[in-house]
């Protein structure tokens, strides 16, 4: 496929095929994604449907992976660029030679017809270069005009057959399948110019007898082909840059892995690593496959995955991700997810799928592309007839030149590239920042957001309760904080409650050695009790201690104060007397308040949706800077609240953990799953935030808005270029200014239009995060 008309034709054929629910064809990626009913059609029939439009097609290999697909695409792009560049250079040299050789022909033709050369560009060339050429190469004007003309004809045939052959073969294929595309415009334009020139070469008297200069357009044909090929080469090179982020990710996977086999370390191809193989990783090496640390400690650079520059400490039991970099220590780890199931492979696949998707804004370009070429052909015919009827001199030549200019300047390519190039660059840039956007539709919707709803636990907060305060009863049975923590953590060690885990972790971090517990009992919903070193210890809520006959009046004021801050107080008694309080909270992330403030500055309303009690939720909201709270709601309640917001005309994003919040993520206009670097394929989410940092929400919205501006700019220039360029080529400025557009200049403008659209999309690579 070479232009938007090609893409539109293939997509239309697939969408009309029986059993197809939806089809998206991507010009940049050269692929189609089809949703179909297996009971109504087959994959082979879908391939045949594409081939019936005149294009080759094949199913993706079952053995291919995201890495092999990207490697194959990179090779094809490199080969295409080299081929186009070679043809453009040779054609350009041939065009320069043809232009020099054509000077004596134009002088002779102008003298024979007693009139000026019709083509304004060539007229300028004659007035500028002819005197100089006569002085440096007088022998050129001594060559017989007919000999020069035949020589130019043969040179043009060579360029058309070698460098421009694909324009004509593709145009013929399109014609054979009753359609037309960009190649049709180029083939008809240059083909007509060549045929006209050949007639002027073979039968010049036919033109002279009617007072028409037997102008030839050989140099125009060659230069038009050269300029279009140069534009295609630049476009191909620019397209390669749009996939730079994807290519960079695919290149992160090492080629080999060092495994432990029979007590020996050996290097093997990474594809041959088996699950549960022991991998040996040294400082400075890239992690070959995903796994779990068996021994050793290190710091791993996971910036390729999360966009976070700080290294992550790894120890026994921690997960490591293939493609990340081991910075310091040596570790041994067990291989887990491999091949297409690996995190890196999933990211590459997700990005390829996203870049192959379509944004809704593309539909306008699709509609125009479907009728663009037939409309341009009609305009070219009308232009020819108008000039032929109304021109005051050389009507045939002027009519012909204007019609060819219309065919050459028209460019459906820019419309086909306007949106997908922006999607490719934007999703790639998002991945660099740890924001995985699953397609053009999500990218566009994120730019329209008015409200961001977010879960509390693990989204605004760390999602891991921790001890925040230790309060002692003056003169109580616990002499100091260390003793209170030792007794409480020893008791809580036997419990699986999240609050118990927070207390035990806190004690261990402080290096407190725990004691054995006897007569351990648990009271559901209240707390624990047991005997430690012969002393009865109880830990739990106020009711737990009161049931045991402990007077908690000395602790009540502190407990109320801490609860008002959104913390959970754990009462502790020792020997039947109140000993103190431990306050436990899920602290907000260090970046949450800053991120929520930035969302406000972007004009977005922020809502906290949580199943927590209202008191705790309000405390967290105050600390995070959120003014609106909906507390005590179950998953279905979150969905209902989102529906209510949407019914009020809001465009809503839901930010959650991708598991507990799956229904709400699916209901939202844009679902954003807070990932931890491994759950990137959260099915309900449109966007995965790899860092688990709310600043990523800010970047997702900013990137989306910037991308939408770029798409609109691209579409504007693609449309306005044709809206202005085609009338100028047809001669709209001639009555007022006496200006006509040469077919050569038309080809230069056509080549520039596509390159400018791609170049504008590439500016998205310069997007910078705020945090």
| Class computed from helices, strands and strand pairing | alpha+beta
Low-pLDDT stretches: 113-117
Outline type: elongated
The major sheet is characterized as: 7 strands, mixed
Sheet with the most strands: spatial strand order: 12-24-23-22-13-20-21
Average pLDDT level: 82
Counted by DSSP, the helix tally is 28
How many extended strands? Answer: 24
The assembly state of the depicted protein chains is: single chain
Q: Assess the beta-strand content as a share of residues.
A: 15-25%
Determine the fraction of residues in helical runs and give it as a percent range: 40-55%
Rg over CA atoms, rounded to whole Å, is: 36 Å
Give the termini distance in whole angstroms. Answer: 41 Å
Explain what the structure shows.
- The protein has 771 residues and is an alpha+beta fold.
- Helix content is 53%, strand content 16%.
- The strands form six sheets. It has a seven-stranded mixed sheet with strand order 12-24-23-22-13-20-21, with helices on both faces. It has a six-stranded antiparallel sheet with strand order 14-19-18-17-16-15. A four-stranded antiparallel sheet has the order 5-11-6-9, with no helix packed on it.
- A hairpin with a 3-residue loop joins strand 15 (518-523) and strand 16.
- Helix 3 (66-113) packs antiparallel against helix 5 and helix 7 (182-202) runs antiparallel to helix 9 (218-242).
Write the layout of secondary structure elements.
Elements (H helix, E strand, L loop, with lengths): L3 H13 L3 E7 L4 E6 L6 H9 L14 H48 L6 H17 L8 H18 L2 H12 L5 H21 L1 H5 L9 H25 L1 H7 L5 E6 L2 E6 L8 E4 L9 E5 L2 E4 L1 H4 L5 E3 L4 E2 L4 E2 L4 E5 L7 H13 L6 H29 L4 H15 L3 H20 L2 E3 L2 H7 L4 E5 H5 L5 E7 L8 H12 L5 H12 L8 E6 L3 E6 L2 E6 L1 H6 L5 H12 L3 E7 L2 E9 L6 H10 L3 E5 L4 H11 L3 E3 L4 H13 L4 E5 L5 H6 L2 E5 L12 E3 L5 H36 L3 H4 L5 H20 L9
Parallel strand pairs: 13-20, 13-22, 20-21, 22-23, 23-24
Antiparallel strand pairs: 1-2, 3-4, 5-11, 6-9, 6-11, 7-8, 7-10, 12-24, 14-19, 15-16, 16-17, 17-18, 18-19
Helix pairs in contact: 1-13, 3-4, 3-5, 3-9, 5-7, 5-9, 6-7, 7-9, 7-14, 9-28, 12-15, 13-14, 13-15, 14-26, 14-28, 15-26, 15-28, 16-26, 18-19, 22-26, 26-28
């Amino acid at each position: 496929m070479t232009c938007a008309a090609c893409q539109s034709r293939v997509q239309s054929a697939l969408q009309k095929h029986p059993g197809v629910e939806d089809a998206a064809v991507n010009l940049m990626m050269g692929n189609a994604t089809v949703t179909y009913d297996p009971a109504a059609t087959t994959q082979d029939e879908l391939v045949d449907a594409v081939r019936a439009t005149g294009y080759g097609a094949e199913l993706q290999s079952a053995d291919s992976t995201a890495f092999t697909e990207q490697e194959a695409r990179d090779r094809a792009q490199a080969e295409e660029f080299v081929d186009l560049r070679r043809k453009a250079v040779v054609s350009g040299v041939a065009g320069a030679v043809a232009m020099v050789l054509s000077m004596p022909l134009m002088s002779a033709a102008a003298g024979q017809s007693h009139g000026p050369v019709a083509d304004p560009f060539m007229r300028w060339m004659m007035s500028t270069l002819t005197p100089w050429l006569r002085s440096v190469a007088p022998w050129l004007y001594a060559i017989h005009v007919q000999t020069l003309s035949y020589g130019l004809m043969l040179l043009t045939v060579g360029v058309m057959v070698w460098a421009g052959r694909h324009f004509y073969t593709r145009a013929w294929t399109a014609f054979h399948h009753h359609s037309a595309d960009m190649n049709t415009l180029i083939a008809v334009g240059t083909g007509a110019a060549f045929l006209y020139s050949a007639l002027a070469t073979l039968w010049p008297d036919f033109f002279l007898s009617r007072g028409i200069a037997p102008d030839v357009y050989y140099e125009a044909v060659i230069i038009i082909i050269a300029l279009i090929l140069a534009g295609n080469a630049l476009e191909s090179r620019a397209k390669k840059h749009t996939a730079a982020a994807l290519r960079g990710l695919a290149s992160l996977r090492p080629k080999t892995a060092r495994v432990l086999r029979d007590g020996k370390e050996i290097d093997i191809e990474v594809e041959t690593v088996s699950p549960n193989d022991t991998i040996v990783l040294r400082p400075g090496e890239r992690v070959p496959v995903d796994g779990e640390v068996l021994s050793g400690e290190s710091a791993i650079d996971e910036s390729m995955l999360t966009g976070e520059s700080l290294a992550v400490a790894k120890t026994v039991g921690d997960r490591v991700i293939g493609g990340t970099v081991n910075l310091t220590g040596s570790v041994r780890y067990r291989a887990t997810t491999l091949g297409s199931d690996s995190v890196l492979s999933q990211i590459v696949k997700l990005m390829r799928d996203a870049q192959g998707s379509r944004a809704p804004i593309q539909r306008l370009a699709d509609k125009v592309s479907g009728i663009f070429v037939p409309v341009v052909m009609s305009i070219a015919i009308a232009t020819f007839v108008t000039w032929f009827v109304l021109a005051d001199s050389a009507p045939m030549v002027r009519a012909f030149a204007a019609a060819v200019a219309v065919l050459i300047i028209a460019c459906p390519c820019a419309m086909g590239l306007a949106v997908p190039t922006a999607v490719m660059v934007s999703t790639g840039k998002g991945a660099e920042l740890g924001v995985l956007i699953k397609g053009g539709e999500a990218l566009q919707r994120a730019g329209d957001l008015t409200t961001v709803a977010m879960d509390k636990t693990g989204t605004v907060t760390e999602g891991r309760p921790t001890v925040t305060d230790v309060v002692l009863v003056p003169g109580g049975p616990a002499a100091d904080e260390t003793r209170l923590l030792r007794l409480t953590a020893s008791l809580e060690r036997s419990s699986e409650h999240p609050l118990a885990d927070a207390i035990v972790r806190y004690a261990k971090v402080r290096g407190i050695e725990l004691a054995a517990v006897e007569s351990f009992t648990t009271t559901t919903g209240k707390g624990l009790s047991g005997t430690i070193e012969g002393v009865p210890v109880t830990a739990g809520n106020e009711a737990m201690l009161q049931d045991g006959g402990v007077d908690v009046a000395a602790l009540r004021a502190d407990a109320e104060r801490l609860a008002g801050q959104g913390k959970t107080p754990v009462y502790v008694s020792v020997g039947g007397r109140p000993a103190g309080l431990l306050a436990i909270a899920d602290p907000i992330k260090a970046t949450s308040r800053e991120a929520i403030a930035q969302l406000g500055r972007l004009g977005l309303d922020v809502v906290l949706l949580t199943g927590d009690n209202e008191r705790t939720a309000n405390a967290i909201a105050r600390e995070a800077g959120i003014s609106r709270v909906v507390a005590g709601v179950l998953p279905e309640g979150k969905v209902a609240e989102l529906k209510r917001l949407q019914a009020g005309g809001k465009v809503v994003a839901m930010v959650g953990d991708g598991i507990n919040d799956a229904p709400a993520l699916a209901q939202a206009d844009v679902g954003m799953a807070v990932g931890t670097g491994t759950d990137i394929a959260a099915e309900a989410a449109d966007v995965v935030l790899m860092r688990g940092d709310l600043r990523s929400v800010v970047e997702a919205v900013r990137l989306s808005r910037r991308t939408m501006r770029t798409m609109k700019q691209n579409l504007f220039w693609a449309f306005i270029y044709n809206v202005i360029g085609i009338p100028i080529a047809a001669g709209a400025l001639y009555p007022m200014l006496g200006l006509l557009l040469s077919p050569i200049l038309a080809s230069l403008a056509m080549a520039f239009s596509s390159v400018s659209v791609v170049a504008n999309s590439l500016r998205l690579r310069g997007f910078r995060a705020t945090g």
